[in-house]
Design goal:
By secondary structure, the chain is mainly alpha-helical. It is built from ten helices and three strands. Helix content is about 55%, strand content about 10%. Helix 7 packs across helix 8 and helix 9 crosses helix 10.
Length: about 230
């Protein structure tokens, strides 16, 4: 049997396909679901990310490393990786969750990603799970500026635009979905002068704006890095 698209995306092929199925099974669908795998994956993720940061930033103190790790393993960060992998397409959800937008819900996608890490551990070993995490986080860790870990994404974006004497971005509410107490907000961050248009999706308008701003900020930094001789401000 050939590898599935998600196995191609993460660079790992399961020897026990049932574990992969379980990793994407929400409790609303039935049992066995992914909550125990999520517990396992959360522990692996914290250890793997801590190891990456320890090696990548040999001079940073424990307090800064802890703050960076907390940011990388939080729900929004996991959600962004899950979105990149299109995990929502593979989720097994109950009818109620499907109707309420569960495939796009940050909490469900973040949990599914952690469950995937746990499933890889059970299917192979810690080293293989760690390798998958390192592959998914490599570009993110490389883009970290340890001098600005405490600033939120909107502040960072505002500062880099002001440093280049460019207009501030527009944040546009595109849509909301889900029930009133579980709404999901889709926010666009638009910077016409740089032809940047990013989208953030989260459980609150503020979090969605922050997510869109982070992607825009990372895009600007990446573009700067590809332009020899251009200095970041």
């Amino acid at each position: 049997m050939s590898a599935t698209p998600i196995e191609h995306a993460i660079g790992y092929r399961f020897t026990q396909p049932d574990l992969l199925t379980q990793a994407f099974t929400h409790r609303s669908f039935g049992t066995p679901h992914n909550e125990r795998l999520e517990f396992l994956g959360d522990s692996i993720l914290n250890c793997a990310v801590a190891h990456m940061l320890y090696l990548h930033f040999p001079d940073l103190p424990e307090g800064v490393l802890s703050r960076l790790r907390a940011n990388l393993v939080r729900q929004q960060s996991l959600y962004e990786i899950a979105e990149r992998l299109k995990l929502g397409e593979y989720l097994r959800l109950g009818d109620g969750e499907i109707k309420s937008g569960g495939r796009n819900r940050p909490s469900i996608l973040a949990d599914a990603l952690e469950s995937l890490f746990g499933a890889i551990l059970l299917d192979s070993d810690f080293n293989r799970a760690q390798q998958v995490i390192q592959r998914l986080y490599a570009d993110i860790v490389s883009a970290i500026d340890p001098n600005t870990p405490a600033k939120d994404s909107k502040t960072l974006l505002q500062e880099v635009l002001q440093g280049r004497h460019l207009p501030l971005p527009d944040y546009v509410l595109v849509s909301t979905s889900g029930q009133a107490h579980e709404q999901i907000f889709h926010i666009d961050c638009v910077i016409p002068t740089l032809s940047i248009h990013t989208t953030g999706i989260a459980n609150s308008r503020r979090a969605a704006e922050q997510a869109a701003a982070l992607t825009a900020y990372q895009t600007i930094i990446a573009q700067s890095g590809r332009q020899p001789g251009k200095k970041n401000h």
